[in-house]
Amino acid sequence: MAEWCAVTGIGQTKHGARRGDVSIAGLVREAATRALEDAEMTWRDIEAMVIGKAPDMFEGVMMPELYLADALGAVGKPIIRVHTAGSVGGSTAVVATHLIHSGVHERVLTLAFEKQSESDTMWALSSRLPFAPPIVAGAGGYFAPHVRAYIRRSGAPAHVGMEVAVKDRLNALRNPYAHLHMEGINLEMVAASPMLWDPIRYLEACPSSDGACAMVLTNEANAGRAPKPPAWVLGTAMRSEPVMAYGRDQVNPQAGRDCAADVYREAGITNPRKDIDVAEIYVPFSWYEPMWLENLGFASQNEGWKLVDDGVTAFAGEMPINPSGGVLSSNPIGASGMLRFAEAAMQVRGQAGEHQINDAKVALGHAYGGGSQYFAMWVVGSEKP
Amino acid sequence: MRDVAVVSFAQSTSFAPDPLRNEVELLLPVMNEAVERSGIPKKEIGFTVSGSCDYLAGAPFSFVSALDAVGAWPPIIESHVEMDGAWALYEAWVRLQVSDIDSALVYAFGKSSIGDTNEILTLQHDPYYVAPLWPDPVSIAALQARALLESDGYSESDLANIVARSHKSAMSNSSAQRTSETSVEQLLSAPYTVSPLREHDCPPVSDGAAAVVLATADLARRISERPAWIAGIDHRIDSHSLGARDLTSSPSAALAARNAGANQGPVDVAELHAQFSHEELILRRAIGLDNGTAFNPSGGPLCANPIMATGLIRIGEAASRIMDGSASRAVAHASSGPCLQQNLVCVLEARDG
């Protein structure tokens, strides 16, 4: 590795069901200009861009980086478009770190977005492939059986999913950018919400959001001149596994465990629960918090739900998870992974405002996608490695 | 920078529309061939990255099932760009600069025949002001060709010459879809598709895949007698607004070529991602290539155009000329977007020792 990489600017949009006040270009500029302002940079300072989003049918624009080149000041510059399913926001950031680590560039803008209101995500996820059996289930229908399998394996009581749903929505009240601000949310409200895909209730599912997130990444020399404390990238990792493989466990996927092992090794983390102060993990349906706690090594197998039930993952808990409110409170799909990475960086920079965790020095950002088969992670820290 | 070389390349044996095979089936033999030729055991390849486009398949996550062709089990370190495979190769080159990995598999696939590319590619335009007009790619290319013919002293014969040369070159490429020995006069007697472009000035509809294996210096020397070293690689983008661009030039291709060092030595071979005949004229000038260079000896995209793999194939074809000893220095070019909006230039060379 030729260079260390640091996050010196972060920006995100106000996320919402329908950002009808802006075009796609306007949405990405809102995040990008905030990241540049945070880094006290201008478009001119940026050498290259890495942009990510989930399937193009979510907006109905094919390879939108072409159309966005002007809005992102990319004319005359390199721009790469990453797409790794739901993990894309995370992998986009990882690809951008490689441009810095390699020494190819010194200042890179990375950005991810989704403007779901331009199209219909459920439709886009339900199209029938000419050669494949139709699933036509959307994401909730796809993941519900895995959640059921988790509950059966672990013996977790039914209220654990609802506890996550309440916790993340309470956290979102501290985050001005969050899509959902549900004052007074409680277990009774979640329990009374309609059952969508048994056992996932309406209020245990993520919203459908428009939103974007952007980060300025620099090498060490540029980070030294940054106006605010940088977040240092201590480790990155990406892992993928196929749709079909004998022995594949979609509840506790091997690719997730391997990805966590990779990123912990790189970041020098031996005991994640002790070494990591706060984590932003990709939880689109409430039960994925305990499932990923196990997959990421914060809890042993079938024990993740106990951390939730004991309040360990709450805002004031010993291992806070998703203090921003997480994917359950804002889900601009392509950006959701980058938001996890960015929120982790905000925590170690001490820039998380009302959802700042005290003394957060090391944080994990996590994203997953596909049928629980694409994983991207990074560990960031307040201290230069 | 670490030295990185292309050590193997494979592509579909035919790019004709193939109604019987899906993307995974198109990809599998090609990927296996590239890996076998590299001599690196598949499980030892450090990084895998691909390029493809959901809109061609008409379904989200079309690249996900391709992972089954890779056999990504146990899980692999992997990435994907929604771009031509040439940009996947760029990502791999960058990844190899981060020194923990020594080899990478890059692949791309496109099955254009299951949709109507003339409709689908209109969706690349500005969704608010341009795409609603449904500007098809041939009409957009014809605007560019017309601008070129009217401003630079080129004639339709220059376009026909490029087509005649490409079709003839393609006769030595067993994968090519279009091959012929046709005179310029014959070509000019064909009717226009969209003036000034005729059917042969436009690319065929193709299905297929390509794969390249990259290796860093020590490994490349160990497994390959004559690796095709990447001497420089860069990519740039122009404005999306066709009205804001001088369509007769390609500043992004010129800048990428300069940054990649295309002119720091003689160029024996150039494989250009010119999907329409007139684009070759623009690219030659932008990259700074003269008649001492053999252009598209494979026949180029006019003879086979598996969208999303076409650019990667240019790099593979150029590298093949280095690896087989018929060239010492080659330029490969890939493009994306309407009227050559985004361009990548990769300079490949042979090295002694």
Task: For this entry, give a set of tags.
heterodimer; A: 385 residues; alpha/beta; Peroxisomal Thiolase, Chain A, domain 1; nine-stranded mixed β-sheet; two-stranded antiparallel sheet; B: 353 residues; ten-stranded mixed β-sheet; two-stranded antiparallel ribbon; 12 helices; 20% strand; globular
Task: Give a short summary of the structure.
The complex is a heterodimer of chains A (385) and B (353). By secondary structure, chain A is an alpha/beta fold. Chain A has helices at 24-39, 65-68, 88-101, 121-125, 138-154, 159-172, 187-192, 220-224, 254-267, 272-275, 288-295, 304-309, 326-329, 333-349, and strands at residues 6-12, 48-52, 79-82, 107-115, 195-197, 200-201, 210-218, 231-240, 278-280, 362-369, 374-381.
Can you put this structure into words, describing what you see?
The complex is a heterodimer of chains A (385) and B (353). Chain A is an alpha/beta fold. Chain A has a domain at 6-119 and 208-224: Peroxisomal Thiolase, Chain A, domain 1 (3-Layer(aba) Sandwich). In chain A, 35% of the residues lie in helices and 18% in strands. In chain A, a hairpin with a 2-residue loop joins strand 5 (195-197) and strand 6 (200-201). In chain A, helix 3 (88-101) packs across helix 14. The radius of gyration of chain A is 19 Å and the shape is globular. The model of chain A has no long low-confidence stretch (mean pLDDT 96). Chain B is an alpha/beta fold and 353 residues long. Chain B has a single domain (1-134, 202-353), classed as Peroxisomal Thiolase, Chain A, domain 1, CATH 3.40.47. Helices cover 35% and strands 20% of the residues of chain B. Chain B has twelve helices and twelve strands. In chain B, the strands form two sheets. In chain B, strands 3-2-4-7-1-8-12-11-9-10 form a ten-stranded mixed β-sheet, with helices on both faces. A two-stranded antiparallel ribbon of chain B has the order 5-6. In chain B, helix 10 packs across helix 11 (277-287). The longest helix of chain B has 16 residues, at 23-38. Chain B is globular and about 55 Å long. The mean pLDDT of chain B is 96. Chains A and B meet through helix 2, strand 3, helix 3, strand 8 and helix 9 of A and helix 2, helix 3, strand 3, helix 4 and strand 8 of B.
